[in-house]
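Both lines are retained for reference:
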Amino acid sequence: MKNEPGNEALTGLEIIILTAFLCIFIYLCASIVFGAVMPDIFSKNKNAQNSAESPGGIIGFATDETAEILIRDGTCYGAQNKGGVFEGVELIPKEPVSANLGACTIPLRLSFGKQISINLEDTVILFRLNSDSQNTEELKYSDLRPLPKSSWTIADKSGLIPLASADSDNILEPNEIFTILVYPKFNVAPYQKFSVDFTPKSLNPLNIAFTVPPQIISQRIVELNM
């Protein structure tokens, strides 16, 4: 019995799709396991567009990507300082101010091809208000829930390659993305600037600066445009 032409075309399309996914999977594995060179095109393009984007949310700019080892990956979010669950983490401020920003999340990963792991518990994380050294605090890691003020935690862990997940430890490895939730003591008002510094042990800092948009007054969670 002959196969109908339509069935042959469908089978061929499926083979092409499966082959494409297999090639992507092999390439990602090679770049992570063997240190193959994969230019971080998307991150560089994001940084080049930072000053050109419209202020629809908090605008962030990565001023130093830790010698291309620790970099931001994905969408960042900010939340009103009114408490509740944010990115799966319960927050209870002592003095809620819903018109101000009280916490933010930043997803981090290692640059492709960098065979190094970073213990985030050894990483110094600083929160700086208005780029002022007098309004700077070092945040401490905490796994307590509710999360206390002046601390940070890992809100989410995920894998970079298909069908792979992150380990349960707090060591950021080449195939993982950790979403860091920053919960400072400061309330950040609309239009105010703040920055977050990540300094892994023996490495240069990653600094990301933000400006709080007026939308934080009416929206509990704001997408941070990069």
The CA atoms of residues 91 and 147 lie 6 Å apart. The chain has two domains: 1-38, 39-225.
